[in-house]
Specification:
Blueprint (H helix, E strand, L loop, with lengths): L16 H16 L16 H11 L22 H15 L1 H11 L3 H4 L6 H11 L7 E4 L6 H5 L1 H4 L7 E5 L2 E8 L11 E7 L10 E7 L5 E3 L16 E9 L9 H38 L1 E2 L2 E2 L4 H29 L1 H4 L5 H29 L1 H4 L5 H13 L3 H13 L6
Parallel strand pairs: 1-4
Antiparallel strand pairs: 2-3, 3-7, 4-5, 6-7, 8-9
Helix pairs in contact: 1-2, 1-3, 3-4, 3-9, 3-10, 4-9, 9-10, 9-12, 9-14, 10-12, 12-14, 12-15
The structure holds flavin-adenine dinucleotide.
The site of flavin-adenine dinucleotide has 22 residues, from strand 1, helix 7 and helix 15.
């Protein structure tokens, strides 16, 4: 058995799946997996991590894939399979290192609001494509979370942005941005382009007052802190970012009044889809490691996997991977086919996708815990690469508003709750 035997809904896999999937798998096996054990010590410098990113993003050209053809991109944003093929890419990268997967995925994240149908903003695509069309890796960041609380900002359906404290004021034909964000993936000096969630009227819950504004990271008044040292996810740098009278052109707003809020709702669905793909990717690698360990190690002269107590756990872990991949690809299809499932940012779709992601995250966290029980001290031994995934995937369970927001959004939809 190989990881490719696990369920995927074959009838709606992208035509690009085989080619792109195998290119990324080869990159992961040659450029990431042999070195990933040393990533933890490289969290600040990214000396070992950077060459692998360069190959993926610049040499293979993936950082241009969402942009339309007319600005030099691959035009994936026009496809009916944008999310489905992204899922495969994120999963393949996540199998090797979920932090690399999030750094890569977040580069797409704010760009979905200007490159993916029906939101293509060709003027902004022309403006930012040259930044990405280079032989150096180029990253984006999406700055939502603020010191007073990230979950409230992501709870856009209920709070509609009224807790956002980062302000954007139109002065002539320029936005002037002031505020403080925490945690965005690819900060700490990595990202070249920032998508910043702002309010144009403090305390307002009018969707017209929510603004998603692009800010090149070198703009005067943008200051980034050093990267945080985390429990894991060393290939993703996160830090504080301050905006002090930062001025950008008025047309750097993603879609305009009302539409920015809609794009932000869609961003939640994209983010949960990516998180699910990172998790199932890590679970695929968990299966591979367990297969080897439980086939080679023996107990009472039999391979470990031939013992009842171990086999029961292995069956559950493999079964969870089988189920979670189906759910994960279902999320991708819900994003790709709003004509069938409803708008990507609709309450129904966000609630279901948050619910699916929480389910996958819980299975992943439980299954890595069970694997640690099976491997015993080998699980804690860095040589087996389990404890690294174990630390990384716990973080995926907690980000994007945490478990509670996933549960609240599911309850809101299924039980028609009014106040949470
Ligand atoms: C590796 C990593 C990458 C990240 N990437 C990004 C990024 O790219 N962009 C970005 O903007 N942020 C990013 N974040 C931040 C992350 O999304 C936030 O930490 C998360 O949304 C929670 O926000 P918070 O930390 O402010 O916690 P809070 O919002 O203060 O919540 C604290 C706790 O209270 C719970 N809670 C909140 N509200 C309620 C409620 N009403 N009822 C019950 N419980 C509640 C939460 O679930 C959580 O457990 C990242 C974080 C990490 C660790």
């Amino acid at each position: 058995m190989t990881i490719d035997e696990f369920s995927r809904p074959e009838e709606y896999i992208s035509p690009l799946d085989k080619h792109l999937g195998s290119v990324i798998r080869q990159w992961a096996e040659e450029d990431v997996m042999p070195y990933r054990r040393r990533f933890d010590e490289d969290w600040k410098e990214h000396k070992i991590i950077e060459p692998a990113f360069k190959k993926l993003m610049a040499d293979l050209g993936l950082q241009m894939c969402l942009f339309p053809e007319e600005v030099g991109g691959w035009g994936l944003g026009h496809s009916n399979y944008t999310a489905t093929i992204s899922y495969r890419m994120f999963e393949e990268i996540g199998r090797a290192d979920t932090a690399m997967a999030v750094a890569f995925g977040v580069t797409f994240w704010p760009l979905t609001t200007i490159t993916v149908e029906p939101h293509v903003n060709i003027r902004l695509c022309k403006e930012f494509a040259p930044m990405f069309n280079t032989d150096k890796p180029c990253f984006s960041a999406l700055a939502m979370t603020e010191p007073q609380g990230g979950a409230d900002i992501e709870n856009i359906d209920l709070l509609k942005g009224r807790t956002i404290q980062t302000t954007a004021v139109l002065d002539g034909d320029e936005w002037v941005i002031n505020g403080h964000k925490l945690w965005p993936t690819n900060t700490g000096g990595v990202a070249d382009l920032l998508g910043v969630a702002c309010t144009t009227r403090s305390g307002s819950d009018d969707p017209n007052d929510f603004a998603l504004i692009f800010v090149p990271s070198t703009t005067k008044g943008v200051t980034q802190g050093g990267p945080y040292e985390k429990a894991g996810m060393a290939a993703d740098k996160n830090s504080d970012i301050w905006f002090e009278d930062v001025r950008v052109p008025g047309w750097y707003r993603a879609a305009g009044p009302g539409d920015d809020a809609r794009c932000f709702e869609e961003i939640i669905s994209w983010g949960q889809m990516g998180s699910s793909a990172f998790l199932t990717g890590a679970m695929m690698n968990l299966y591979e490691i367990l297969y080897k360990f439980c086939s080679e190690k023996t107990y009472n002269k039999k391979p470990l996997k031939e013992n009842d107590a171990i086999a029961a756990l292995l069956g559950r872990i493999a079964g969870d991977l089988d189920i979670c991949r189906v759910i994960g690809y279902q999320i991708a299809r819900m994003i790709d086919r709003p004509d069938i499932y409803g708008g990507r940012g609709s309450r129904q779709v966000i609630s279901k996708i948050r619910n699916f992601k929480e389910f996958i995250a819980d299975r992943a966290v439980e299954d890595f815990g069970k694997a640690m029980d099976i491997l015993g001290f080998y699980g804690a031994d860095r040589a087996w690469d389990i404890e690294k995934h174990w630390r990384d995937i716990k973080i995926i369970q907690l980000w994007m508003g945490g478990k509670q927001l996933c549960q609240m959004e599911a309850a809101r939809y299924f039980f028609d709750c009014k106040s949470l």
